[in-house]
Specification:
Oligomer: single chain
Strand content: 5-15%
Distance between the termini: 58 Å
Radius of gyration: 24 Å
Structural class: alpha/beta
Shape: elongated
Order of helices and strands: EEEHEEEEHHHHHHHEHEHEHEHEEEH
Mean pLDDT: 81
Helix content: 25-40%
Length: 494
């Protein structure tokens, strides 16, 4: 289970979707002027390859998500590990059962080479000191009674600093453990960070040395922790810091980053998890103040599902991504990190906006620690229907995400009218379709935005969204005016 489930305590009900409402015409709010669709169609703009069926009729398509087996549920908690399901395992042969947990591939097609390495982060001339939230700021003996010494027999061994692959500052940790098992665990954070560095930054020979089952540093750290030997644990962290610093100064890490293709999802989840744990988790109770039955209901798409959306829409570093109703900014940050594209988000709820701002600041610090250059991030506050800046971003967007699972029909219809301004080929990903099933173009509905949306229905598996473990459907609507243009040409010829 993902940390996103922590916003919904055990025993609470899933977020109910707003009731479906099928209309033949768009319903507008009192303050919204009705818009008309111009018959002067622009020429279609080139778009990246899409795997969306070009059918006017809504079609059901299975996503290429292989089901993983033996997934273990995790207790919903404020222990922040940003993952969508259990660790990678072999998939069932030929399994295509939606209730299986999704193990998603991570091959993102791009037409422009992304510069992945954050160059200043590897500069020895830079002092590498910048504002960030250290682990010791959220988990320390000052937080009594929430935390206690992890090695009580070595009370003097309670503070360390950890070196990341870049030349930036070390992160401060206190060697403590939470009294409640669902709170942030510093030693687990260290363990998972070291594993990701070994697996994704080190040459095979160095990685195998660290992972040796008998004498590898990772194994020795585990033994020290199991024995509660604080002095040995600290000495091993110092050994780690020395080796990582030497490898960086020897120029080992930079060419590895320069040669990487798409970022591995485990590295993405590690950075996003650290960001969330240090900013949102300590304040997560504010996200429970959303009110069901309104448009302001909080829920998140989980990282592996988001990664699949990026893959299937062909989102690349040269594109623009927009998240309407972006919450605390998780998907906006993931797009900037995973794809390296220009990434926009807009959120109306003030408490989520505050947390999103904190996440953005910490995310930039985390990217520098890990030496990774992300795409540009733009977080806007307010109503995405009224925000002029977001309206301009939508006009150049290649992929738009709308988690409209709990939107009211009125809001969905008002939002649909804004899709008239999208460029040709833009794809809108949503949890509910914006086009009624069976919709057909007629001479009476030529001004309807439904006529320029080509919709494909797809399936997601369990553990893909924060509000339920159940599988479900999502939709990709592609802006395509060709069908309406053909109808109008045929209508004139009659």
């Amino acid at each position: 289970m993902s940390f996103f489930n922590l916003i919904q305590k055990k025993g609470s009900k899933p977020i109910p979707p707003a009731p479906d409402s099928i209309r033949k015409e768009i319903v507008y709010g009192a303050s919204t002027a009705k818009r008309t669709f111009s018959p002067n169609f622009p020429q279609p703009r080139p778009s990246p390859p899409r795997s969306i069926a070009r059918s006017r009729k809504v079609t059901k398509v299975r996503t290429s998500i292989s089901a993983s087996k033996n997934s273990q549920r995790r207790k919903a908690s404020t222990q922040t590990r940003l993952v969508s399901d259990s660790d990678s395992q072999e998939s069932d042969d030929g399994a295509e059962v939606p209730t299986k947990r999704a193990k998603l591939t991570h091959d993102t097609p791009t037409s422009r080479r992304r510069e992945l390495r954050y160059r200043i982060a590897f500069s020895e001339d830079d002092d590498g000191v910048f504002p960030m939230v250290h682990a010791a700021d959220i988990a320390s003996l000052d937080k009594l009674p929430k935390y206690r010494l992890a090695f009580p027999e070595n009370a003097e061994c309670h503070a360390i600093a950890l070196q990341y692959p870049s030349a930036s500052q070390q992160e401060r940790f206190e060697i403590v453990e939470p009294v409640q098992s669902d709170d942030f665990k510093p030693l687990d954070d260290i363990k998972e960070t070291l594993e990701v560095v070994v697996n994704h930054y080190m040459p095979a020979t160095d990685a195998s040395t660290f992972k040796d089952d008998s004498h590898g540093l990772l194994r020795r750290l585990k033994r020290a922790r199991d024995k509660k030997d604080g002095a040995l644990y600290i000495s091993l962290i110092h050994e780690w810091n020395g080796v990582v610093t030497r490898l960086r100064r020897d120029g080992v890490f930079s060419p590895i980053l320069d040669g990487l293709g798409p970022l591995d999802l485990r590295l993405i989840e590690r950075i996003l998890t650290q960001t969330y744990a240090r900013t949102v988790s300590p304040r997560v109770s504010t996200l429970r103040q959303y009110e069901n039955g309104t448009d302001n209901v909080y829920g998140e798409l989980l990282p592996k599902f988001v990664s699949e959306i990026f893959r299937i829409t062909g989102l690349g570093p040269e594109h623009v991504f927009v998240d309407l109703g972006s919450g605390v900014g998780n998907v906006v940050l993931q797009a900037a990190l995973e794809i390296g594209c220009e990434s926009w988000g807009c959120e109306i709820m003030e408490n989520a906006c505050v947390l999103a701002s904190l996440q953005e600041q910490e995310f930039k610090a985390r990217c520098r620690l890990w030496g990774i250059a992300s795409g540009d991030i733009h977080l806007q506050r307010g109503d995405f229907l009224e925000n002029a800046t977001i309206h301009k971003a939508l006009q150049k967007a290649d992929v738009v995400l709308v988690n409209n699972q709990a939107f009211t029909p009125t809001l969905n219809d008002r939002l649909t009218s804004h899709f008239l301004d999208l460029k040709e080929g833009c794809q809108v990903v949503s949890l509910k379709s914006f086009v009624p099933t069976g919709h057909k173009i007629t001479s009476r509905n030529l001004n309807s935005a439904y006529n320029v949306l080509d919709v494909a229905e797809k399936r997601y598996y369990s553990a893909c969204v924060s509000w339920t473990d159940a599988p479900g459907a999502y939709f990709i609507s592609r802006k395509d005016s060709s069908g309406l243009r053909r109808f109008m040409e045929q209508d004139r010829g009659r």
